[in-house]
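Hi support team,

I submitted a single chain yesterday and got back a structure, but I'm not sure I'm reading the token output correctly. Could someone confirm the output below corresponds to the sequence I sent? I've pasted both exactly as they appear in my results page.

Thanks,
R.
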Amino acid sequence: MYQHSSIQAAKAETMLDRARRIAPLVRQEALASEQLGTMTPKVVEAMKDAGLFWMLLETKVGGFQASMVDCMKAWEEISAADASAGWTLMANSTGTAVPYAFCSEEAVAEMYGGTELPIMAGMLGPGGTAVETDGALRGSGKYRFGSGSLHATWIGSGMFVMDDNTMRKLPDGNPVVRVCWRPREEVEFIEGWDVMGLCGTGSVDYNLNDVVVPDGYHHERTTGRGLRDWRLYDIGIAGLACAGHTGVALGLMKRALEEVTRIAFGKKRPAYSVVLGEQQVFRHDFAYQEAAYHAARDFTLRFYGEIQEYLESGGVLTPAMRARFRQNCIYVHKVASEVVRFCHMMGGSEALRNPSDLGRCMRDMYVATQHIFVDTIAMQDIAVPILAEWRGLPAEAAH
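Hi R., thanks for writing in. Yes, this is the structure output for that exact sequence:
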């Protein structure tokens, strides 16, 4: 149906295999990416060569149609090498799946039918307004945190749709937000990404200035039914985003535990009779934190594996199932913040001096916890459909 170039590496190789192959380079380039403010060209090219940007595309267009469990493991592996690279990869790989899943056949043919597969990025939440004429939208907006945008080929941006200066509403009363996809040439990037953590994500601000988005190149942000054959897309934008963010948190825990273990057996603190790794209190606390990492990881992999199996067998997600995407994401970030904090505290002065891999883990983790998807206040709303499920109430009672 679509023309595409072949992706390097054998199809039998998993996304985790590919991630492991380039992880040493990603780790080596972490400081340079942080200083540059975005992934270095070497890392971008390595991810392209490994096909990681296209893990969530159907095979018919040259993607890998990888399982969610495999994707989660790949995001974790790259994030353990460098959380900025893992964050960027999850933003690009999930973002690249979104217009493929929800835009029209004609739009998909243009975006994915070239000699090279595209890379998508952007802020899909509302940052602008548009009016509709014959299916096309025309509007402008100012956007922030466009992670991975500097090497993307198409940019997605959320817009409120206005009717006579009034926001158009969905049947449930929420405003309509259309995610609009435009070539990078139509976007005004505002560089100057300068933050305390996740410095190498290239999460620059950008503007859209009076752009026209043809019919089929925009879709409702909350759509929960993909237009392609692969039913995994029915997890929607929120499900994809939660999965990606959770993968990064898992990787940060993994790297922090690795770093504190290295430090623990590398030197002895003043007033300690043994190295930190042989100190009883450290061993006790490390065992708990390491268990917390594995518990959160196993919960995540089981959850996404079950969701994919359910969807591909013809199931339709209930409100409680959808709520659990964000429940899992918030929970894992809470666990991760505690694990990384413990490792940073135990790292002593080595975690304080720049450059410090453990220090970077700490900064990256606490920036990651500021994302709106992991705002713990959402748990009170998440609990509503989950409680209804526990009470045995019908799905409509969960709203």
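A quick pointer for reading it: The two ends are 40 Å apart (CA to CA). Let us know if anything else looks off.

Best,
Support desk
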